[in-house]
């Protein structure tokens, strides 16, 4: 089979646990299970699909049109989810497993359905695992398209796992077997619409060189009125770092190996013609190995009902930030719309000052895509909450998919 890239995209699915109880009385240890059904590309809720939990429930459908299907009285344990009603214009879903855990009264499982752009009934697909740290292709891995294939393994040691005549559809793909030094990866949703290959992330085991990377951060100083970058500032992370300064005059002060958490920060030198700002708090997240935190050059950072926001875009295969000055973002909801922000300093993120707390749609524009490629990104909505830090970082994923 040829290994030309197809419209095969990735959307991370978090699998934790959830089953259901059907024709039995509710018990103290039962769980209410929700299947949250969304469009695989846009993240928009889908309302027409119906499912059953095999041997545990009657058919469940989206009765109130919010994209969530509810199953009450489910006992903890493993279940097979079977689609009983499809959606016009979307691929059918392969039967997929969930595990309902005890201890949580409500549990939520994402179900991501891809639009049907297929031209045939089956596809030849190869899975190419990649090391999230090095980008290398580890050999000896095994995968299964739940509800669509038997387990496939890398039998010849070239790193590729091939599946011929796979029915087109939406699948939860499981990493079923790994090799020494690598951990099994979480399940992920894929839409299979034609011949091609998909890349599946695998990570080294903790203790085998796979310990989570400690983030490097940058403090990015911006004008409170224009949001323009200001040069020449210096900062200290209280009780953690020495003084760091904007030595290369790019508006960014770097600190390496800053563990996730909250830190108080002093500005020790202000940009030229500016007054020093008051001590402020930042929050460092562990999800991004490289992250910038925007600082407003004003006496105080934000009001209680506002936060600074940075949108980071990562390459899903390498984890590297996508650094492109033509990447531009707008945040908007029914009450507020930001000015368009762009990655003008090519640091892989777009910064906003003084965004009110709330839920926002993220509108992304990027110029100069490769010819014939498609832009897919997620999430399409973000929630800005009252975190401890004066600045928060929202991590998103940017994908450019070739046909």
Task: Give the overall shape.
Answer: globular
In terms of DSSP E residues, the strand content is over 45%
Named CATH topology of the largest domain = Immunoglobulin-like
Counting structural domains, the number is: 2
- Overall SS class: mainly beta
* Largest sheet, strands/sense/barrel: 5 strands, antiparallel
Under CATH at level 1, the class of the largest domain stands as Mainly Beta
CATH superfamily of the largest domain: Immunoglobulins
Topology:
Blueprint: E1 10-12, E2 31-39, E3 50-53, E4 60-61, E5 68-74, E6 77-85, E7 96-100, E8 106-113, E9 122-131, E10 142-145, E11 152-153, E12 161-167, E13 169-177, E14 182-183, E15 188-192, E16 196-204, E17 216-222, E18 234-237, E19 244-245, E20 252-255, E21 261-269, E22 280-284, E23 290-296, E24 306-314, E25 327-332, E26 341-342, E27 349-356, E28 358-366, E29 374-378, E30 381-384, E31 391-401
Parallel strand pairs: 2-8, 9-16, 17-23, 24-31
Antiparallel strand pairs: 1-15, 2-5, 3-4, 3-6, 6-7, 9-12, 10-11, 10-13, 13-15, 14-16, 17-20, 18-19, 18-21, 21-22, 24-27, 25-26, 25-28, 28-30, 29-31
